[in-house]
Amino acid sequence: MSIRRPQGTQDFLPRQTVYWQYMEKKIRDLCRVCGYEEIRTPVFEATELFQRGVGAATDIVNKEMFTFEDKGGRSLTLRPEGTASVARAYAENKLYGQTPPWKLYYLAPMFRHEKPQAGRFHQFHQFGAEALGTSDPLADAEIIWLAWTLGAKLGLKGLSLRLNSVGCPVCRPGHIAALSAFLRPLAGELCEDCRARLDKNPLRVLDCKKESCQKATANAPALPGSLCPDCREHFAAARSYLEAMDIPYQLDERLVRGLDYYCKTAFEILAPGLGAQNAVCGGGRYDGLVQEIGGPPSPGVGFALGLERLLGALAEQGAALPVSGPPCYVLATLGETARRRGAALAAELRAAGFTVLMDLQGRTLKSQLKLADRKQAAFTLILGEDELERGAALVRDMRTGEQREIPLAELARAMEDMT
Ligand SMILES: [Zn+2]
Ligand SMILES: [Zn+2]
Q1: N or C: which end of the chain has fewer CB within 10 A?
Q2: Could you say which ligand is closest to the alpha carbon of residue 228?
């Protein structure tokens, strides 16, 4: 029986990885100009990190984690998201002691055991950026600018930004109490999930996409009304920076985000074609997270963006990702002596930075030339017995069909001129 890849995983073949590489380059370039540096954390972590850092009441922790025991009986989990790991690394490496803020980003696979459906995978990939050690509202605006600008740079059209403030430990308890008091008499009208949320996380009831729940909660008390002066001031400043940077946003009082550690700024970026439930990017401020996982109190703000979703949105919009590398040369040889000399020549040219392909199946010269067509080579270098005797190669321009003989000693220089 043939072995197949596990459910919910994908193979990315070369025709796809060129797009991933293109997207990843855009991301890295953008992070660099914003002063974000890359961090790489382990693929698995102690399960407790996610229970505390993501929240025991969330779907991610309750239903979707790949958890296993190591040989010593310790519970480990394949990371379902990146922020908890970055916060752990920040605390564990005592980065808070070294002139914060730290502006970090990751590009990494994540693992969630979600119901298989279109566009959802058990292994998927996220780009995330986190600014740790700063509560400055300009950091919030900067992080939103980064996420927003990436979509624009990749050619994504019709993006919209939804923005809210979800309060802080000072003002949120009062809001949650008011919300609970409002929701409790309506329990009968809410879906099963929302009835469970009533006790654990009533804020999330506002986020439910079921029509019956949205209807029942239409007049629920809104968060912005109960913000404390500190949260109000922070939100106003973040908005003024966004306006100064010309980023359009829509206020959305029902935007609460799924994770417990968010506070103050919360945002989502939506792309048309993915549906209202399907933000391409979500993020916000999480001032309580580092402390929650055992570090010192350290504010932070960040976002995560699903790369499969981003590519999906680009495909949906028919955006062509320009992928063009340097021209490729096919080196065709006739006879074993020429092949050996050709191998040496290819090595020399590759060391000089040229992309040179040789036949690896012992094909005839005619078939080797077909390889040049298939690989869309710009030039073919032909090395036969006659050329070899003269110490030269025949160079054919594949677009014009023109060919000329060039001495091997001058080949690299001539190729430089041709490209
Ligand atoms: Zn507050
Ligand atoms: Zn519901």
Answers
A1: N
A2: 1
CA of 11 to the centre of ligand 1 (A): 45
Look at residues 223, 305, 301, 295 and name the one whose alpha carbon lies nearest to residue 271: 305
- On whether residue 2 sits in a domain, the answer given is no
Note whether 294 and 343 are same-domain residues. no
Pair (283, 399) in one structural domain: no
Give distance in angstroms: CA of 100 to centre of ligand 1: 23
Q: What is the largest CA-CA distance in the chain?
A: 95
The β-bridge partners of 245 are none
According to the model, what pLDDT value does residue 260 have? Answer: 62
Interval 88-140: pLDDT, tens: 999 999 999 998 899 999 999 999 998 877 778 999 999 999 999 999 999 99
Tell me how many domains the chain contains. Answer: 2
Q: Which residues surround ligand 2, an ion (CB under 5 A)?
A: 191, 194, 208, 210, 213
Q: What is the residue range of 392's domain?
A: 328-418
Q: Give me ligand 2 centre to Cα 169, in Å.
A: 25
Backbone angles phi, psi at 259, to 5 degrees: -105, 145
Taking the C-alpha atoms of residue 171 and residue 226, their distance in angstroms, rounded to an integer, is: 7
Residue 265's DSSP bridge partners are 165
SS3 108: strand
Q: Is 395 left (phi over 0), alpha (psi -120 to 50) or beta?
A: beta
Average confidence (pLDDT) per 10 residues, the chain, 419 residues: 92 91 95 97 97 84 94 97 96 92 97 83 96 97 96 90 92 88 87 84 82 86 87 97 97 78 91 70 93 93 93 83 80 94 95 94 91 90 92 92 92 86
pLDDT at res. 351 = 94
Amino acid occupying residue 277: Q
C-alpha to C-alpha distance for 67 and 113, rounded to whole angstroms: 10
Give 10 Cα–ligand 1 centroid separation in angstroms.
43
**279-302, pLDDT tens digit by residue?**
889 999 999 899 999 999 999 999
Q: What is the CATH number of the domain that holds 374?
A: 3.40.50.800
Show the CA angle centred on residue 159, arms to residues 154 and 165, nearest 5°. 120
For 181, the 3-state DSSP assignment is helix
